[in-house]
Design brief:
By secondary structure, this protein is α+β, with helices and mostly antiparallel strands. It has helices at 3-33, 35-42, 59-69, 121-131, 136-161, 168-175, 183-197, 199-213, 215-225, 250-261, 322-335, 340-387; strands at residues 77-80, 87-93, 98-104, 111-116, 267-271, 280-285, 294-299. The protein has a domain at 3-40 and 124-230 and 344-368. α9 (215-225) crosses α11.
Length: 388
């Protein structure tokens, strides 16, 4: 068996074993690529009328109002947008699972909407994309290593696609779909030609997806991109429980401090610690709609002393090293948001083509199987006659 035939066998059986997984993950990825744009239409309460020289209400004030409409559950944080977006107060917990978001006018405190994220369409799609709607402990590794298999298939597919030479005839076969041919040939071209053009996008989607789910791969990428550094385990620093509490609403002090230095267009997140040992976690998002360009802060809730942490999700973006910045960018690269709308279009089209590959590939395999079966039957009958 030649090397190319062996690669063909590997490509075939990996494709048949992972085809359904690839289809589900890719087609849900298509939907998630434009999640924010769709939500701007479905959730008009995300927007408010701009207030000239308006001063938003403090986190503690918004928290008190939000906890009245979601009784019996503690608010986790306040998320401030720019002057045209409403503030969001999230509530979430486990056993039982719940996740609510209270949209509010930050200037008046008016509750605009209470949304149950657990029953939201995009929450359902996200669980399919991450876990195949299985329990997280089962679905997450299945999706992660299925994505690794898909990355291998993309590489083996490139080897199988690669023309022996680049004469004009081969270029037309390899780079164009022959629409006037029989349907089997059209299907074959639909597997190979779009697959080639989407190869680089598919690899980027697969590799960035693997960083979320395969720890050894994520650690390896960080080690290479950071110049040999080991990725520290992320954990929030603890507050000093022996210190005397100096402020009645420390989250308001953090909000005031960060609001003075941030641009008007930047978003701001302030957490509400529930235990005496928890710190106040905050970030300034300089590019709302993405998640990479942020400054992260932690404060002792009793003294407001800044707490120093290590890793990609700590400190300011400007002072982060290349490896830390690349890790921060991973999600936005994965969704295409790093390049704004053009990037999301690329991610959508790449995901759509990736979703089609298991279908066209299965049809190719089935067609060849059906084509070979008469010859196999004829050979078998001939052998029987020879024995008789």
């Amino acid at each position: 068996m030649t090397a190319k035939k062996l690669i063909g066998k590997v490509h075939l059986w990996l494709g048949l074993s992972s085809g359904l997984l690839v289809f589900v993950v890719a087609i849900t990825g298509c939907v998630l690529a434009f999640e924010q744009e769709i939500k701007t239409v479905l959730r008009p309460y995300q927007f408010i009328e701009p207030v000239a020289n308006g001063v938003p209400m403090s986190p503690s004030q918004l928290r008190a109002i939000a906890e009245e409409v979601v009784p019996g559950k503690p608010a986790k944080a306040v998320i401030y947008g720019d002057g045209e977006h409403s503030a969001i107060v999230p509530f979430y917990g486990v056993a039982p699972d719940y996740y609510y978001q209270v949209y509010m006018n930050p200037y008046t405190g008016k509750v605009l909407h209470v949304h149950d994220e657990e029953t939201d369409f995009f929450h359902f799609i996200l669980h399919g994309h991450y876990y195949l709607w299985l329990p997280e402990t089962i679905g997450q590794p299945v999706v992660a290593y299925g994505t690794l298999v898909f990355a291998i298939m993309l590489i083996t597919g490139l080897v199988l696609w690669w023309p022996k030479n680049l004469k004009k005839a081969n270029r037309e076969k390899s780079f164009r779909i022959k629409w006037k041919a029989k349907w089997r040939r059209v299907n074959y071209d639909l597997h190979n030609v779009p697959g080639f053009y989407a190869l680089s996008i598919g690899l980027v989607l697969a590799l960035t997806g693997m960083i979320f789910g395969i720890q050894w791969f994520a650690d390896s990428v960080y080690w290479v991109s950071s110049g040999g550094k080991t990725a520290p385990v992320y954990q929030l620093p603890l507050s000093d429980t022996t210190a005397v509490r100096r402020f009645a609403a420390p989250e308001d002090r953090v909000w005031q401090q960060l609001s003075r230095s941030k641009p008007h267009t930047a978003g701001l997140y302030i957490s509400f610690p529930e235990k005496a040992s928890e710190s106040i976690f905050a970030y300034v998002n300089y590019k709302p709609g993405t998640y990479y360009k942020m400054d992260y802060y932690s404060f002792d809730q009793h003294t407001l002393k800044p707490l120093i942490t290590e890793g990609p999700y700590s400190g300011t973006y400007a002072k982060a090293g290349f490896g830390d910045k690349l890790r921060r960018m991973n999600y936005d690269i994965h969704t295409g948001a790093i390049l704004s709308l053009p990037g999301k279009l690329l991610a959508f089209c790449g995901s759509l083509i990736c979703a089609s590959l298991p279908i066209t590939g299965t049809i190719i395999w089935w067609g060849r199987r059906k084509k070979k079966s008469p010859a196999v039957k004829q050979y078998a009958s001939q052998r029987v006659r020879e024995k008789v």
